[in-house]
Amino acid sequence: MTRIDAAGHWLAPLGLRAILAWEFFESGREKLLGENWFDQLAGQFPPPFSLLSANLNWTLATWLELLGAAALLLGLGTRFVAYALIVLTVVATYAVHWPTEWAGLAELWQGYAVTDNGYGNFKLPLLYLIMLLPLLLRGAGPLSLDGLLMHRWTHGQALPAVATSDAGHAVWSALLILLGLPIALLLPWAGGALIAIGIALAVLCRARR
């Protein structure tokens, strides 16, 4: 089991990065070579993207997907890129894949599909979000430019555990708030809960100083 864990430590993040890089590259390439259909989504984007023109939103989405795919494949700036792609995916889900109306979680879950039968079709975006989350939380892994840079920066010394320090609590507070903001677009109660926990944790850390 120890050898399997060691292999997973090296290969699992690489597998996630590779498949996500391909998916976002394919999506970005289709936009780059295709015609802008964001005009058909007028009024469906959440703020602040609703304040931007369809052409600008199209350009931002295209190059974020293409450059984000390259960064994921190389494992460069992985946490930042993963969060940016999470925001992109949530915005796309809000504008295209989320049902306009739903009464209860049971009805909402009918949108967990690839084809739209009147309940949305957010299965693939949800899978992307779940796959991006480990890269945001754990990083790119050792087989990456991030891993190489971190190894050189620390000279092979282990970093202190994040969860045992005030700085670590501050990081978790910021992370919960950052995750809560896009989630609140789709599920206000869930996103609001994450934001509230993040704020409470920040207040608790400040009170302990």
Topology:
Elements: H1 2-33, H2 54-74, H3 78-97, H4 105-108, H5 123-138, H6 145-154, H7 166-186, H8 188-208
Helix pairs in contact: 1-2, 1-5, 2-3, 3-5, 3-7, 7-8
Structure description:
The chain is mostly helical. It folds into two domains: 2-158, no CATH class; 160-209. The termini are far apart. It contains eight helices and no strands. The mean pLDDT is 90. α1 packs antiparallel against α2, α1 crosses α5 (123-138) and α3 (78-97) packs parallel to α7 (166-186). The chain has helices spanning 2-33, 54-74, 78-97, 105-108, 123-138, 145-154, 166-186, 188-208.
Task: From the structure above, extract its key features.
209 residues; mainly alpha; 2 domains
Summarize the structure.
The protein has 209 residues and is mostly helical. The protein has helices at 2-33, 54-74, 78-97, 105-108, 123-138, 145-154, 166-186, 188-208.
Major beta sheet summary: none
Fraction of helical residues? 55-70%
Detail the poorly predicted runs: none
* Integer tally of domains: 2
Alpha-carbon distance between the two ends: 42 Å
Would you count the extended β strands for me? 0
Mean model confidence by pLDDT: 90
- How many helices? The count is 8
Overall geometry comes to globular
Strand content: under 5%
- Helix/strand order, N-terminal first: HHHHHHHH
Q: What structural class should be given to the helix and strand makeup? A: mainly alpha
